[in-house]
Amino acid sequence: MTRTALLAALLLSVGLPRAGVAAETPQGDAGALTPMVQSDSLVFNGVTRSQDGRVFLPFQRQTKDKGIELGEWRDGKAVAYPDDAWNGWKQGDDPAKAFVAVNAIRIGPDGDLWVVDKGAPGMGEAPLPGGPKLVQIDIASNTVRRVYPLQAATTDKSFIDDFRFNGRKVYLTDAGQPGIVVLDLDTGKLRRVLDNHWSTIAQRPLTGQGRVLRDDKGKLLAIHADQLEVSPDGKTFYYQACTGPLYSIETRWLDDETMDDAERAKHVTLFAPTVATGGTAIDADGNIYASDTDALRILKIAPDGSTRTLVQDPRLIWVDAMWIDDDGGLWIPAAQMNRTPAMNGGEASAVKFPTTVYRLQIGAKPVQN
C-alpha cells in the first residue's frame, strides 16, 4: 500500500471529519471548559504554568514594534517578562539581545522558563542575524540564565517554531525550511535532521475554520514541521507539519550523529491521521492531545495511534500550544490566530475579544522530560 493510500485508510478508520467542518454545538466535556486567562486586547499563541502556579504566555504583536512578546499573567493582566528590555525590541535594535518574535515557551524539566524566538519580524520574512535563539530564564530571579543561538542551523527561509526536551537534547521544528534541529545543551552544538523529508513538508495549504489561509501579502500559507512531542520514556519522537498527519521516529535515530538522513528516513512511521493542528500536548501515559483548527475540537490520540474527540466547542478557535498542569488540567489557549492579519490575507484583525485560555480537567499527569 502506498503512503497516500495508507493515510486515506487511516482517515476513514478513525472517522475524522473533512477539513472545513466547524463545530456547531459543544460535545464531550465542553461544559467543563473553565476560563483561566482572558484579555480584551492581547493575542497569545501558547501557555505554560510553573509548579508554584505562575502562568506565562507568548504574545503576537498586532502592531509593528508595539506590545510585548512574552508576559507573566499577574492579577488579570500581562506583565512584560523577564523585563521591559527583553520585550522592547524594534527595527534597528540588536536581535540577539531581545525578543524579536517569540513563538513557543515551556517550563523545562529544570523548572526554568525556556523561550523560542524565531528571530524574524514578520510572517515569511527572513530571520535577522542573531535573531533565532533559545532563551533560558531563571524564574526564581527573573533573569536570563543563558541564550542558545540557533543561527548556525537556520537559513533565510527558516521559522524555528516549537521545541521539546529529551534529557540534555532539545528537538526544535523548522516550519519554514522543513526539518528538525537537534541541540545539545551541554555543548551548544546544532544539527539538522530529516531536512526536506516528506514527513516534515506540509502537503497542503493551512486552513482554519474551513477556510484556506493566506499571509499578510496574500500568499497561501504552508507551515512545515511544527508540532512535536516526546514520549514519556524519551524513546519516541512525534512530529508533523501544521496540517498533519502525525509521524513518529525513535529518538535514537535523531541522536545518532553518524547516521545520514537517507538512512534515518527509513525509520519514519506514520502514527496518526491528524488534520490541521494548532498545537499539542502529551501526558505521562503517552496520550497526545491535538487541536483541530477546522472542526474546533481537541483530539486525544492514544499510544497505539487510535483517536477520539476529547472536547468540541465553537469557542475553541485555533487552539495553539497546550499545557498539562500538575493537577491534571489541560490548559487550552484559544488563540484565534487564523483571524489575525498574518493569517487572514492582511485584512484587518477579526479577532473577537476577549481572547481566552481555558482549562479542562482531564485527570492526567504531565510528562517530566
Automatic annotation (TrEMBL):
Signal peptide: 1-22
Keywords: Secreted, Signal
Xref: Gene3D superfamilies: TolB, C-terminal domain
Localization, UniProt: Secreted
Pfam families, sorted: MRJP (PF03022)
Major place of residence: secreted
Membrane spanning residue stretches: none
Protein name: Sugar lactone lactonase YvrE
Organism: Methylobacterium persicinum
